[in-house]
């Protein structure tokens, strides 16, 4: 988590403070590099929670959070519902897919809880955070299958849950942005349920980014991860089954729902995210794109210390709120 020598000057000071704190905390968590994935995930969760308590503002306490056990083709997964106060009319819903490089992260992290409470209240939507299965124990397409099954459950249970089945969207950051983009593609391909919107934040639309200028410049800033390790863990040794594992490899992007694509100026994934947003627009998809100035991968969480991170959250919430008033 040490800034690249030629990149540190580009980044907002609040981001550098966060990177430094991460480095200090990581020094006391040797299991971050453990070969045993459960141990590694536990250490990563401890690091993420400690950083969130320091750098992320608490979410509104009036937002109710309940857990649902959702059936999938492979068993049950947990889905957390963030339900803001307000009128009892059917409310739009947003399926939220966490990041973590396909191998870690989860819906019970402090940062997820704090950001999603705020987005649910400010966006006027019910948010459903999906606890999908992780690689390498569950390689592609396990995570995507779980997300698609969660969407099917949400659509089928809309009346019971009090959400509007015609205004369901999907979103995610990093690996979650990858999954959200693919959920939108699969929903279009299968003919339903039709999605109202997609929110893609610093999305990992491809793992083939070694030639990108943004990767070469910022790969060491917050740790772009070992791409070979991620490929092996998530994709395995054989060709992916069930269609492309990367949104950038989807040949046809026409007919997808309106999108908000947020990239970070100092992120290794910046260039690939820009290309995907441009492809969406060229395919006739309504796209709103924003590049967060002087931000890095993951720094959207710095709502306590960064005005830009707060602007980031406000932009997502505003986009979600705009969908609550759009015609069904």
**What would the CATH topology be?**
Rossmann fold
Give the strand line-up of the largest sheet.
1-2-4-3-5-6-7-8
Largest sheet: 8 strands, mixed
- Estimate the strand proportion: 15-25%
The first-level CATH class is given as Alpha Beta
State the end-to-end CA separation: 44 Å
Number of helices: 10
Q: Give Rg in angstroms.
A: 18 Å
Compute the number of strand runs: 8
Helix-strand sequence: HHEEEHEHHEHEHHEHEH
Derived structural class: alpha/beta
| Overall mean pLDDT | 93
Q: How does CATH name the architecture? A: 3-Layer(aba) Sandwich
Uncertain regions spanning at least 5 consecutive residues? none
| Domains (count) | 1
Observed structural traits:
single chain, 8-stranded mixed beta sheet, 328 residues, Rossmann fold, alpha/beta
Describe the structure.
The chain is an alpha/beta fold. It has a single domain (8-234, 256-323), classed as Rossmann fold. Helix content is 39%, strand content 19%. It has helices at residues 13-26, 37-55, 110-123, 142-156, 158-161, 175-190, 213-218, 227-235, 270-282, 307-324; strands spanning 64-72, 75-83, 91-97, 126-130, 163-173, 198-201, 259-266, 287-296. It has an 8-stranded mixed beta sheet, sandwiched between helices. Helix 1 packs across helix 2 (37-55), helix 3 packs across helix 10 (307-324) and helix 4 crosses helix 6 (175-190). The protein is globular. The N and C termini lie far apart (44 Å).
């Amino acid at each position: 988590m040490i800034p690249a020598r030629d990149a540190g000057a580009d980044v907002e000071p609040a981001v550098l403070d966060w990177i430094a704190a991460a480095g200090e905390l990581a020094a006391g968590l040797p299991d971050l590099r453990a070969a045993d994935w459960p141990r590694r995930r536990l250490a990563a969760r401890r690091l993420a929670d400690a950083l969130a308590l320091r750098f992320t503002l608490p979410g509104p306490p009036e937002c109710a959070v309940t857990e649902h056990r959702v059936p999938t083709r492979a068993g049950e997964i947990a889905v957390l519902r963030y339900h803001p106060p307000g009128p009892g009319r059917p409310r739009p819903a947003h399926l939220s897919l966490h990041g973590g490089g396909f191998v870690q992260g989860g819906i019970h992290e402090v940062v997820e809880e704090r950001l999603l409470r705020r987005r649910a209240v400010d966006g006027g939507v019910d948010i459903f955070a999906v606890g999908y299965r992780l690689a390498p124990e569950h390689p592609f397409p396990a995570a995507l299958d779980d997300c698609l099954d969660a969407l099917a459950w949400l659509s089928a249970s809309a009346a019971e849950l009090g959400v509007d089945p015609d205004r369901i969207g999907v979103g995610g950051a990093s690996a979650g942005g990858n999954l959200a983009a693919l959920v939108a593609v699969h929903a279009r391909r299968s003919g339903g349920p039709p999605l109202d919107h997609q929110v893609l934040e610093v999305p990992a639309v491809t793992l083939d980014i070694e030639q990108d200028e943004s990767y070469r410049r910022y790969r060491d800033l917050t740790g772009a991860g070992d791409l070979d390790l991620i490929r092996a863990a998530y994709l395995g040794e054989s060709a992916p089954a069930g269609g492309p594992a990367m949104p950038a490899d989807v040949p046809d992007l026409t007919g997808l729902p309106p999108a908000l694509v947020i990239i970070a100026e100092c992120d290794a994934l910046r260039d690939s995210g820009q290309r995907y947003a441009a492809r969406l627009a060229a395919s006739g998809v309504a796209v709103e794109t924003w590049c967060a100035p002087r931000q890095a991968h993951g720094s959207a969480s710095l709502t306590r210390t960064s005005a830009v991170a707060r602007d980031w959250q406000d932009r997502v919430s505003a986009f979600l709120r705009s969908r609550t008033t759009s015609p069904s």
